[in-house]
Design goal:
alpha+beta, two-stranded antiparallel sheet
């Protein structure tokens, strides 16, 4: 249990008042009558960096075991990048591939592990130029070493699919389900996939060495793929008409793969390649060594959106960025505080669902921010009263039994 009041003030502020630590200090003083000068906050963050990250993850793990009935057998892993509005690099802040298109900005890479219901399990921070595929094993090994899980199936998207990762996962004895890049498979595997002739909702297994490649085909995905291809084609046609394409654009990235050179200078669209690409519309692959049915593989992978939601909430609702710190240990501490804030957010979401409330966590927090407590000093000591003025405030107080 983390008992320091300053820790919880910083965490709760990340849920309700998303600003720098300097402005957080002023907010706590003005609205909560809590005096934490910003230098005291920084000193505490230095302490938090050195001692409480492991405790935070231990508490999170124990809580998740409790609410999931002791079962943490399926985990989801993904990474994101967080950039900084500065020019200089250091040992942690490095320029690298940015998921937000900020390739010129120093950044860090954040790896996050969550459970099936989207509850955060563990995280780690890596140098901004580290390849995302090299972050997964360190996080998994550290987590498994601490909690000695007998069986754990790891689910990750195709961005983490590499031969090195697959070999390391198998060598370490992990079961996994990874999104497959079926268009990049060897020609014999591609031929097998395209010969399946799947209909809406069908799935099939293609053996790939000692691994299984599960291939599915939903009509709605095929329609979406077709729409995207047509949009890409129209963009190319528009750029050719405007004369804004050169031979440097001819590569295998995105829809530029439909381009070809005619003679010395003429750039044209290879419509036959565009049509041939339609054979892949709707097809989705999953590479696995897990001892599950193909239906279970597909169903489990379908929950991967939860980690995407976790990053979205952390980046937008909890505003893990922008990060105003420059020292490495304070950056890591800021992420630790954001991790705990997200943990509370998920617990609030769980309790609202358990209480069959129609409120979202965002709406709940919005209402809480309008509730005030009045304190007064009398001859008999201090008295306090929570002001519940609106109907929604009263309903929330009744829902959580306070006021």
């Amino acid at each position: 249990m983390i008992k320091e009041d300053i820790f919880w003030q910083l965490v709760l502020s990340r849920l309700t008042y998303l600003v720098s630590k300097l402005r957080t200090s002023g907010y706590l003083d003005r609205y909560h009558a809590v005096a934490y000068p910003v230098q005291q906050i920084y000193r505490y963050m230095d302490k938090l960096h050195s001692g409480q990250k492991e405790l935070v993850q231990q508490i999170s793990y124990e809580h998740i075991q409790q609410i999931l009935g002791g079962q943490v057998s399926v985990v989801f892993y993904d990474v994101t990048s967080l950039y900084f509005e500065i020019d200089h690099e250091d040992e942690l802040l490095k320029t690298g591939f940015s998921k937000e298109g900020k390739h010129q900005n120093p950044q860090i890479v954040l790896g996050l592990l969550v459970s099936r219901n989207g509850y955060p399990l563990a995280y780690d921070v890596f140098e901004g130029n580290k390849f995302e595929g090299h972050t997964m094993l360190p996080v998994l090994d550290s987590y498994n070493e601490k909690y000695n899980l007998e069986q754990m199936i790891i689910i990750a998207d195709s961005g983490l699919l590499s031969n090195a990762n697959i070999n390391e996962l198998q060598s370490a004895g992990y079961e996994f389900i990874l999104g497959a890049r079926i268009k990049n498979e060897k020609h014999d595997i591609q031929r097998k996939i395209l010969s399946l002739k799947l209909s809406d909702g069908d799935s099939a297994v293609v053996q790939k060495g000692n691994l299984r490649l599960i291939v599915t085909y939903p009509d709605n995905r095929a329609k979406k793929d077709l729409i995207n291809r047509e949009k890409g084609l129209k963009k190319l046609e528009k750029r050719i008409k405007a004369g804004r394409l050169t031979k440097s654009n001819i590569n295998n990235r995105g829809y530029n793969k439909y381009l070809k050179m005619e003679g010395e200078v003429n750039i044209a669209i290879d419509y036959s390649r565009f049509e041939a690409d339609g054979a892949w519309d709707g097809l989705k692959g999953y590479l696995t060594n897990a001892n599950l049915s193909k239906e279970e593989i597909i169903e489990n992978y379908g929950h991967l959106w939860l980690i995407e939601k976790a990053f979205r909430i952390s980046k937008t609702d909890l505003k893990i960025k922008p990060i105003y710190h420059r020292l490495q240990h304070r950056i890591e501490c800021h992420i630790c505080i954001s991790f705990v804030a997200y943990k509370i957010y998920k617990e609030l979401e769980r309790q609202l669902k358990e209480k069959k409330s129609s409120l979202s966590p965002e709406k709940d927090i919005e209402i809480v921010k309008t509730i005030y407590q009045v304190k007064a000093q009398t001859d008999n000591g201090e008295v306090s009263h929570i002001l519940l003025i609106s109907k929604e405030q009263q309903n929330l107080a009744q829902l959580f039994n306070f006021g």
